[in-house]
TrEMBL record:
<keyword id="KW-0285">Flavoprotein</keyword>
<protein>
    <recommendedName>
        <fullName>pyridoxal 5'-phosphate synthase</fullName>
        <ecNumber>1.4.3.5</ecNumber>
    </recommendedName>
</protein>
<dbReference type="InterPro" id="IPR000659">
    <property type="entry name" value="Pyridox_Oxase"/>
</dbReference>
<feature type="domain" description="Pyridoxine 5'-phosphate oxidase dimerisation C-terminal">
    <location>
        <begin position="201"/>
        <end position="255"/>
    </location>
</feature>
<feature type="domain" description="Pyridoxamine 5'-phosphate oxidase N-terminal">
    <location>
        <begin position="70"/>
        <end position="181"/>
    </location>
</feature>
<dbReference type="GO" id="GO:0010181">
    <property type="term" value="F:FMN binding"/>
</dbReference>
<dbReference type="InterPro" id="IPR011576">
    <property type="entry name" value="Pyridox_Oxase_N"/>
</dbReference>
<comment type="subunit">
    <text>Homodimer.</text>
</comment>
<keyword id="KW-0288">FMN</keyword>
<dbReference type="InterPro" id="IPR019576">
    <property type="entry name" value="Pyridoxamine_oxidase_dimer_C"/>
</dbReference>
<dbReference type="InterPro" id="IPR012349">
    <property type="entry name" value="Split_barrel_FMN-bd"/>
</dbReference>
<comment type="pathway">
    <text>Cofactor metabolism; pyridoxal 5'-phosphate salvage; pyridoxal 5'-phosphate from pyridoxine 5'-phosphate: step 1/1.</text>
</comment>
<comment type="pathway">
    <text>Cofactor metabolism; pyridoxal 5'-phosphate salvage; pyridoxal 5'-phosphate from pyridoxamine 5'-phosphate: step 1/1.</text>
</comment>
<dbReference type="Pfam" id="PF01243">
    <property type="entry name" value="PNPOx_N"/>
</dbReference>
<keyword id="KW-0560">Oxidoreductase</keyword>
<comment type="function">
    <text>Catalyzes the oxidation of either pyridoxine 5'-phosphate (PNP) or pyridoxamine 5'-phosphate (PMP) into pyridoxal 5'-phosphate (PLP).</text>
</comment>
<keyword id="KW-0664">Pyridoxine biosynthesis</keyword>
Length: 255
């Protein structure tokens, strides 16, 4: 009986392992959606920030309606060294306007160092509930000290303390090292000391040079629409583009 039990467990494990490892068969069908067609049939098309804002609001609404664990303002941030070695991580979008998209971090972190030597970045937002993603590429600038200070003061006190005690991306000896630093600052704060914003901590703004809107479609014939600045296109590329608001043009991309 024991041998039969062990054999049955082994077979179950083999089946589960096979199902997990055979990821080439994983495939989720997407519903047909036509939201991007409106862009391609409106002349001029709206400015990309207007489209971004509409999608961001819809993504936020569906996440709240479905009680999704996803955060509507989460985004992947890709940076690269001067010689092109890339890195990517998730950060939270903390501000936006027609000029650009804002996030905050430690300037001495890996992304901070890479942005110092190669001030370009790419953002990617994804809302699986809607089968949508947006890619944004552009130049990156630091925000002013006043802007960084204002945002730092708007954060909850524990988040201010976390930023103050963490030497982000640096090697530390243990978790206890961080907890000891936090307890030490907690004790000083409880005695009335305020948390100073570290000079190495502040904001960045990604200034878009392109937006790409992706809508999942059935049979993997997804919709992709890209906005770029008119001056960045060649004459040949302009023949395939249509005008959008301001100095933007709109292009259809094959999936």
């Amino acid at each position: 009986l024991r041998a039969q039990y062990i054999l049955r467990i082994a077979r179950q494990f083999k089946m589960q392992s096979s199902a997990i490892s055979n990821i080439s068969d994983w495939r989720k069908p997407y519903a047909e959606r036509n939201q991007l067609e409106d862009l391609l049939h409106s002349i001029p098309a709206p400015a990309p920030y207007t489209v971004w804002l509409r999608w961001f609001e819809q993504g936020t609404a569906i996440i709240k309606e479905t009680n999704s664990p996803n955060e509507p303002n989460q985004m992947a941030l890709a940076t690269a060294t001067r010689d092109g070695c890339p890195s990517v991580r998730y950060v939270l979008l903390k501000g936006h306007d027609e000029r650009g998209f804002y996030f905050y971090t430690n300037y001495s972190s890996r992304k901070g160092k890479e942005l110092a030597e190669n001030p370009r970045a790419s953002l990617c937002q994804y809302w699986p509930e809607l089968n949508r993603s947006i890619r944004i590429e552009g130049r990156v600038e630091r925000t002013s000290a006043e802007n960084s200070e204002a945002y730092f003061r708007s954060r909850p006190l524990p988040s201010q303390i976390g930023a103050a005690v963490s030497p982000q991306s640096q090697v530390v000896p243990s978790r206890d090292f961080l907890e000891d630093r936090r307890r030490e600052l907690d004790a000083r704060v409880s005695q009335g000391e305020s948390v100073a914003r570290p000079e190495s901590w502040g904001g960045y703004c990604v200034l878009p040079t392109s937006y790409e809107f992706w809508q999942g479609q059935r049979d993997r014939l997804h919709d992709r629409v890209r906005f770029r600045r008119r001056q960045d296109l060649t004459d040949e590329e302009m023949r395939m583009a249509q005008p959008a608001e301001g100095d933007w043009v709109c292009e259809r991309l094959a999936p």
